[in-house]
Amino acid sequence: MHDDRSLVESRLKRVLDERIRPAVYPESVPLTAGIWTAPDEPVPVAEGLAAPRTPIAAGSPWGAPWSTSWLTVEGTVPEAWAGRTVEAIIDLGFDKNMPGFQCEGLVYRPDGTPVKGINPNNQWVRIASPAAGGEQVLLHVEAAANPVILDYHPFLPTGLGEKATAGSEPQYRLARLDLAVLDETVWQLVLDLEVLGELMAELPVDGARRWELLRAVERALDALDLQDVNGTATAARAELAAVLATPAAPSAHRISAVGHAHIDSAWLWPLRETVRKVARTTANMTALLADEPDFVYTMSQAQQYAWIKEHRPEVYAKVKQAVAEGRFVPAGGMWVESDTNMPGSEAMARQFVHGKRFFLQEFGLENQEAWLPDTFGFTGGLPQIIKAAGSKWLLTQKISWSQVNSFPHHTFWWEGIDGTRIYTHFPPIDTYNCSMKGSEIAHAARNFKDKGRATHSLAPTGWGDGGGGTTREMIAKAARLRNLEGSATVQWEKPAEFFAKAQAEYPDPPVWVGELYLELHRATLTSQAKTKQGNRASENLLREAELWAATAAVQCGTAYPYQELDRIWKTVLLHQFHDILPGSSIAWVHREAEQTYAAVTEELTGIIGTAQRALAGDGSSGREVVFNATPHERSGIAAGGARMAAEPAGDCSLHARPGGGFVLANGLLRIEVDGRGLVVSAYDLAARRETVAPGAAANLLQLHPDFPNMWDAWDVDQFYRNTVTDLTDLDELAIAADKPQAVAVRVTRSFGSSRVTQTLTLAAGAKRLDLDTEVDWHETEKFLKAAFPLDLHTERYAAETQFGHQYRATHTNTSWEAAKFEACNHRFTHFAEPDWGVALVTASTYGHDVTRTVRAADHGTTTTVRVSLLRAPRFPDPHTDQGVHRFRHALVPGATVGDAVREGYRINLPERRVPGDAEVAPLVGVDSDAVVVSAVKLADDESGDVVVRLYEAHGGRATATLRTSFRCAGVLDCDLLERPLAEQAYELLDGAVELRLRPFQLVTLRLARG
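Above: the chain's sequence. Below: its structure in token form.
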């Protein structure tokens, strides 16, 4: 037989495009329309409905960037259409290749009831089926003219990401405003042919099934009269019925489809637009659930439910009903799909606390799965947090984006730093926007790495990123793929149903230990420095606000600000979303974030001040009480306590260095700063050990070109290291302080269009060099780092993460290690030989890199850590990080990992001084530095119980005693939501709790007050 495949396949494509798809709507009449554009931000629905309209027709331009227009469309169903299915077609000027990334609309009835969203792949609004002739049609559309930021030529700098620079020219042109008859037979024929054509292309050419499909398609096209598609569609479908009815092989891969719309809570649009994106999508999904009995839809992010509840109560009512019916499934149990690299320990825990509690309170449901398809890698501290929140499964998709190494499993146990394991699935379909294309389904089956041991995978199905969700076409395709020879089988299921089946089938998959590092988007650890600093500052302030408010409530009877703290936590958690905290959103988002963090700082500072004033007592004596919020004693003040504190005895000295520069000393360290303003020696006097590698200089600022191949704000590509400029030119080197309590030098440099001033301080009694850096940054596409070459030989180093630290290699033996050329830390990195170590601690930076070399002169090893300070990408914010920034770091020679933990907390939680003369006993105290208290608060249920969260911080076994300054009537071992665990691990003996902790173990205790 002659091979005519390409002939039939080309025929299918042209006939579908030019004859069959146009025949889906064989008859149409135009709608009349009027428009009103809101003068600024979106208006309430009632105002939009009532505003006067100006006539507008298809073909007319509309929509300045970020504006909102209200369209009213009117028409009459022709008498001849009586008994047929009639729909309105509203095309705002859509590009079908950009769902979620351009204009969108929400359709309302005249009474203000939302009907559904419209977007490029969902332009229809059902009027009636069957329709009545003469029926009047009146619909209103709230149309959002969101500009296209990520265009066909991606990553070009654009001013469209901020209202002030976006311009006022119309972005769109109305394309179609019609009433039309829907021919459902032709619509079904389109889906038949698409499914078979897409499946056919994935089957082997030498297999019989491919040829069976080809001949069936050919017969269907022969049966179709191209001059009368609507009249012959039934006959064409009949030719396809047999091949569509042939069941799949028993060994076929099984796909659990989950209706889904991955809606970024902010990204190429501001937060206010996400509120409307969620409303449009959920309105569509609840309508689709009513029409499709097999369909199941899932949505994560409690914040998005809260937005609909507040802003679109009519839509939320439908969501609640669908949730109660088990068809609309809340997933993930987090407040937002956050970044997991940078959020601190408590913040990561509170993502689950607030997310799960919302779903429990609103729907009576508790999630068992964490749902993070698009997050940019996962820290080793996360499995313990997931388990402590009462969950046991994790779904992610993003690691399929890794540039170098293909992850070896699709279903596996993921083991965290403390040994906790979470059953994890990574869908082989390699997208969280599955559209049920044959190529996607075939890829999932071929790509599945667990063949022979497992048969199930999951497919999040629906348009995402900017929303949209599942379409009726996807559901129709899934129905055909439910049991079709040559294809994987597809069935709509809830995430929990999938995980239960997968774990029952494959209970003992391989284990992956440690972080799930994404080999991409590494620059998100640095982009938008002020967003990151706002996050860290807010986390620190929340710790203090809870600690001091709880202490004041217990000791002074001061009212505890439950509602205020709940609201602020949710605000901070929202801004940890995986395109806000990582710095990958438009300028509008980060400008608002900076304003929000400023407001959070003001409110939390007020809460802290109120509590501390109540605790400090009478301030008329002229004396001050010093408050210590760290989990370690400092300046003679207990952790979490306050008292009168004397200034430290001074023994610092500063003198000129031969050859230029200065020598700073305090009896513990001797620091040499050369004539270039660089640290050439940091000598540990007790250990008689030099920190800085021979011939090298620390605190060396280095500037790299930074123009990645794509994803500018997200990525830094390894070739950036090929070119580096050491910033050694000096504007000024001067003494900044010369007192017995502290000595300091100031270094000022200029480079490019920027200027940096650093103050290097050595304080009395401190075994650390404090580094304060101010950068007036005006570079473009540059990367600024500060290098610390250490005279240390080590094959691994520790970087703090949630509730502990994780180790990474200093070498590049394998491609996995080489790919981690930029990584995340929280408050510290730590480097050690068996008897001596060095820590570098930070108040607000996250990105760093570590390299090692062997010196030719003495064959010793230099291990260099470089902190990442600033970048200057131009997409999506062309002015990223321009302006003044301040950073604080400290170099700690001779540090153990315990010292690194302590100094990390110290630099993040400065002492506070308040007029008064009281001594404030800590609410709780722990007698081991290895056991760190991460939170002290009152229980969220307002019972007055004190909640204490703590963890083992050094990576070893720890025994400690926890005591309280109040009468404790009982202790409960709890989960993160402050609910007692089934097995009580701790008990109260003589007013104390004896703790025995595994390495990095996390514990939450609920202490009843007597």
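Residues 587-616 form the longest helix (30 residues).
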